[in-house]
UniProtKB/TrEMBL annotation:
This is Extracellular solute-binding protein. It comes from the Bacteria. Residues 27-40 have a biased composition (Polar residues). Residues 27-53 are annotated as: Disordered. Residues 41-53 have a biased composition (Basic and acidic residues). Pfam families: SBP_bac_1.
Length: 540
């Protein structure tokens, strides 16, 4: 029975997919030894012919097309391959992200669900609790060894995918690269000033000071350099918190440490961080527009040879050297640095990292009449073969293998007028479904240097343990959201004022007291019991 779900606005992508399989066969050789064998073979041939004549199962697929100029169809390489393998024909309901986000909320409110839905895990989990999706745990355990290995047996992946009761309603898309954001510095500026790569906070201070005072860009004007600048949205300058071992993300202010959850802004080490940032700001080592700098403005300053260092997605900034504007700047070269440390001899570690599970995937709705076959499709897409398909496409068509067994995209992808990545999206690669990204995919869409910079973090193991994926109970989640919103809004305003000097650091204790008035104690209690539940789940 269909259940009408409450309507709410979400930023997500959805997909519906129904799948069936039918065997195909060629003529068999008849056995001339006995009539019974001949009859048996004729029956087999008739069965094969009957299977081959079966009509394809038509399945609706509600999904965002990653390339809006090339909407998914049954001729899109990835979906055509699946259709042929499992004898299915997709009825695509697709469009760009904005269009499908609008359609999604109406679709889920109506109760008239597609067979398979691709979207954000949190939304699929939520609607799963209300009956729109079926739990997949038992089906995975029984029939899906690849999904079981990568989603259930991997405790981190399981926690990142399941709901608060341990139910899996979607098979997730999985990342191949752990590296995310980090400190980036102009290596050519360091070389010009004969400076080493900084590692401690004190080293960074000396380096930024030299960038400011010694005409680091070499244009004859010692006053036009901005030693450090970053994009305001995303709080990227918080990367310097690595030196104090604290975590801060744009949507998360908590640090897991020694079996406890610490609200980062109240920790004494955070006060020391603010003192350092304010001092650097006063010295002119940080961008004066640090708290409001927009991405487009930052990009312009970087490409105008003015920014000595930043903190951002490593692959993104490393790739700037390929931009036409950068190629006009002699020696332009951003390189990643190890996570900043406080004292010589400390191990460089960062909390900033991609989780193994990208928060997208696909699930089976309650309306699906082909659950077993759909699970076969899910298993295939998650398998090694499916991984190749959704990362590289079809051998001889969109990729080849070199003598060392490395993947190389063909001209069909690399000659795309708007870049390799868009060429990849056009054949259906990197669809927002439950497949595993391949490390070589990252290498192929980036230049070798950018890839090596990202992979360096992995090789050097610069990561703290991944932040736990906490599952808030239904009784807590709404209150947690309310408290987090009001507290984080207050914190963000105060942090900005502390850094730029509108509020003296001497008022830090008053700031902490004000947080208590905003019910931080209640938020801490919710966090603590949720963390206890998390520990219990991963210990099972």
């Amino acid at each position: 029975m269909r259940r009408k779900l409450k309507n709410f606005v979400v930023w997500t992508i959805m997909g519906a997919l129904v799948l069936t399989a039918a065997a195909c066969g060629n003529d068999s050789n008849t056995d001339k030894g006995t009539n019974s064998n001949s009859q048996s073979n004729r029956e087999k041939q008739e069965n094969i012919q009957e299977e081959g004549n079966k009509e394809k199962t038509k399945l609706s697929l509600f999904i965002v097309s990653r390339s809006p100029e090339s909407l998914y169809s049954n001729e899109t390489l990835t979906w055509k391959t699946i259709g042929e393998k499992f004898n299915v024909e997709f009825d695509f309901i697709t469009g760009d992200n904005t269009t499908m986000s609008e359609k999604f909320r109406f679709t889920m409110a109506s109760g008239d669900y597609p067979d398979i839905v691709a979207g954000q895990l949190k939304d699929i989990n939520m609607f799963g609790k209300e009956g729109a999706f079926i739990p997949l745990n038992a089906l995975i355990e029984q029939h899906s060894p690849s999904i079981k290995k990568h989603v259930i047996d991997d405790k981190d992946a399981f926690m990142q995918t399941s709901d608060d009761e341990g139910n899996i309603y979607a098979v997730p898309m999985m990342s191949a690269i752990r590296t995310s954001t980090g400190s980036m510095i102009r290596q050519d500026w360091l070389d010009r000033l004969n400076l080493p790569v900084p590692d401690t906070i004190e080293d960074w201070h000396r380096t930024l000071k030299a960038f400011k005072e010694q005409d680091a860009n070499g244009n004859g004007d010692p006053n036009d350099e901005i030693p450090f600048a970053s994009e305001a949205q995303g709080h990227y300058f918080m990367g310097f918190l690595d030196a104090w071992g604290l975590n801060w993300d744009w949507d998360n202010r908590w640090t897991e440490e020694n079996g406890k959850m610490i609200y980062t802004p109240t920790d004494p080490r955070f006060k020391a961080f603010l003192e350092t940032m304010h001092s650097w700001y006063e010295e002119g080592l940080l961008d004066k527009e640090l708290m409001t700098r927009q991405k487009t403005d930052l990009d312009t300053m970087i490409l105008n040879d003015r920014v000595g260092s930043t903190n951002h997605w490593i692959g993104h900034i490393a790739g700037f050297k390929n931009k036409p504007e950068a190629q006009k700047i002699d020696g332009f070269n951003y390189q990643s640095t190890p996570p900043v440390i406080l004292n010589k001899g400390d191990k460089p570690l960062t909390h900033k990292q991609q989780k193994s599970v990208i928060q997208l995937g696909w699930g089976i709705t309650a309306n699906n009449k082909h659950v077993d076959l759909t699970m076969k499709i899910f298993e295939y897409v998650n398998s090694d073969e499916g991984q190749i398909l959704f990362n590289f496409g079809k051998e001889g068509d969109t990729y080849t293998l070199d003598a060392e067994g490395n993947y190389q995209y063909t001209d069909k992808v690399t000659d795309s007028p708007d870049g390799i990545y868009n060429g990849l999206l056009r054949f259906g690669g990197q669809a927002w479904v439950g497949f595993r990204q391949h490390p070589q995919y990252e290498k192929l869409i980036a230049d070798e240097d950018s890839f090596n910079q990202m992979y360096n973090y992995i090789e050097k193991d610069y990561f703290h343990p991944a932040y736990p994926t906490l599952k808030y109970a239904s009784d807590d989640i709404e209150r947690y959201g309310e408290l987090t919103t009001q507290i984080n809004t207050f914190v963000d305003e105060k942090v900005a004022k502390f850094v730029i000097g509108q509020e003296p650091i001497s008022k830090f204790d008053d700031f902490v007291k004000q947080l208590q008035k905003l019910k931080l104690d209640e938020l801490q209690q919710i966090q603590d019991r949720t963390y206890e539940s998390y520990q219990a789940m991963i210990s099972n």
